[in-house]
Design brief:
This protein is an alpha+beta fold and about 150 residues long. It has three helices and eight strands. It has one domain: Alpha-Beta Plaits, CATH 3.30.70. The chain has an eight-stranded antiparallel beta barrel with strand order 1-3-2-8-5-7-6-4. Strand 6 and strand 7 form a beta hairpin. The model has no long low-confidence stretch (mean pLDDT about 95).
Length: about 150
């Protein structure tokens, strides 16, 4: 069963709208009921910080990682990347998920922000510019990043 169900454009979850494309709305349904099956299902991997409630802004990073490379990416996220980024002022917390339906991209990171420009701060940029980050980044395929605002 999914820990997160994203229903693009429709659904019963908390709604987040892409800042650059307002027509792109995600219904973000955490701990969905078994009856909710329409959407993109994800399994929880890890979280850090306060992820107990919707945030004013949600920064999502979708990554497509080859299965053989997942252990290295998971280690980097757990030991460096998630702790560094969730410690940036304005970042409330972050959660990582793995897609369950074999679709691509297969990983999702979601950071809860107080304001939309947190990922442009010097602290955020430093957190994603480490030597380990530079070694891991070539494993990413088809990366998609969005800043979304809470609309309901």
């Amino acid at each position: 069963m999914a820990d997160l169900l994203i229903q693009p454009g429709r659904g019963a979850g908390t709604r987040y709208q892409d800042l650059e494309n307002p027509a792109d709305t995600w219904h973000w349904l955490e701990n969905p009921p078994a009856s909710a099956t329409d959407g993109i299902p994800y399994a929880f991997i890890a979280s850090l910080g306060d992820v107990s409630r919707p945030a004013p802004f949600l920064y999502t990073v979708e990554l497509d990682i080859a299965e053989a490379d997942l252990p290295a990416v998971y280690e980097w996220y757990e030991k460096e990347h998630l702790p560094l980024l969730t410690s940036v002022p304005g970042c409330i917390g972050g959660t990582r998920y793995k897609r369950l339906d074999e679709g691509r991209p297969n990983l999702l990171a979601a950071y809860r922000f107080e304001r939309p420009e947190v990922n442009q701060s010097p602290e955020w940029i430093a957190g994603r510019s480490t030597a380990w980050c530079e070694r891991i980044r070539p494993l990413f395929r088809g990366t998609r990043r969005y800043v979304r605002k809470l609309i309901a």
